[in-house]
Design a protein that fits this description.
297 residues; alpha/beta; Rossmann fold; Pantoate--beta-alanine Ligase, Chain: A,domain 2; three-stranded antiparallel sheet; 9 strands; binds adenosine monophosphate
Length: 297
């Protein structure tokens, strides 16, 4: 089936209301475009589990700080439409900035402590922008299953929290991170990497694996795990560490000593590209389950 591009909120609502009235389940994959295999995996999950799949492409100005890469963010609408069609998307929602924000935005959604550390610390206005646009997209799409990547682990936690707190009628589905063969997590921002930076970039995943290995070897001091990850990034001249952290996977607080289901997260700059990645691990009763998850993500 060819993908249909929709640019207005009214038309998308009409089509999805009609689908639900005909007992069809709606699957939703929100993106910022420049689509890759990571996005495609979300589309395929939606295609397998729902009847009408809608993908949005909107580079949301609210989630970029003034000094960030809003204007430089890569775009390729023709390529995106082809990838969406190949992966079973029915509707591509591509609103203009004016369609989404016709006037000054007065309302903002703020999610609290889960949004505060890590990305929230490095990018203080980022998650308010994400939560606000995702709330708006959920209001436009309506009741659905919405697919998000674990690649943006804190974003997934923010969205889950917001949906629960606000009783939004959306079922949030988290999907595993898709990687290049050398471990680099796929990202639209990988397009910013020079060949030398690209060659160095798998160090992020290696650092995460090193952190998991330290935990599997018995480390329960978060500082030790942080230091093990940071040492790898610091040893790579093309990388500049932003953070390397190990947190409780549900609360994103740092348990000391480490206990339960954990998430290890790294953010590092390679020139113009700021890369983030994460993997799972665990200490204690749930260790087996989380180490399986850690090795597959
Ligand atoms: P973005 O276009 O970067 O805003 O991402 C849109 C959605 O795709 C988010 O839910 C991301 O977490 C997800 N995503 C991005 N990269 C990957 C990846 N490598 N694997 C799985 N999901 C991803």
């Amino acid at each position: 089936m060819p993908v249909t591009t929709v640019t207005t909120i009214a038309e998308l609502r009409d089509r999805l209301d009609a689908a639900r009235a005909a007992e069809q389940r709606v699957g939703f994959v929100p993106t910022m475009g420049f689509l890759h295999e990571g996005h495609a995996s979300l589309m395929r999950a939606a295609r397998a589990e729902t009847d009408v799949v809608v993908t949005s492409i909107f580079v949301n100005p609210l989630q970029f700080a003034p000094h960030e890469d809003l204007d430089a963010y890569p775009r390729d609408l023709a390529g995106d439409a082809a990838l969406a069609e190949d992966n079973g998307v029915d509707l591509l929602f591509v609103p203009s900035g004016g369609e989404m924000y016709p006037g000054r935005m007065r309302t903002s959604v703020s999610v609290g402590e889960v949004a505060a550390p890590l990305e929230g610390h490095s990018r203080p206005t980022h998650f308010d922008g994400v939560a606000t646009v995702v709330t708006k997209l959920f209001a436009i799409v309506g009741p659905c299953r919405a697919y998000f990547g674990e690649k943006d682990f804190q974003q997934l936690a923010v969205v889950r929290t917001m949906v629960r707190d606000l009783s939004i009628p959306v079922e949030v589905v988290g999907c595993p991170t898709v990687r290049e063969a050398d471990g680099l997590a796929m990202s639209s921002r990988n397009a910013y990497l020079t060949p030398e930076q690209r060659a160095a970039s798998p160090v992020v995943h290696r650092a995460l694996r090193t952190g998991v290995a330290a935990i599997e070897a018995g480390a329960t001091d978060p500082a030790e795990v942080r230091a093990a990850m940071a040492a790898l990034i610091d040893a790579e001249p093309l990388a500049e560490l932003d953070y390397a952290e190990v947190v409780d996977a549900a609360t994103l607080a740092v348990p000391d000593p480490l206990e339960g289901t954990l998430r290890l997260l790294v953010a590092a700059r390679f020139g113009a590209a700021r890369l983030i990645d994460n993997v799972g691990a665990s200490v204690g009763a749930t260790a087996e389950a989380a180490s399986t998850e850690g090795s597959s993500t």
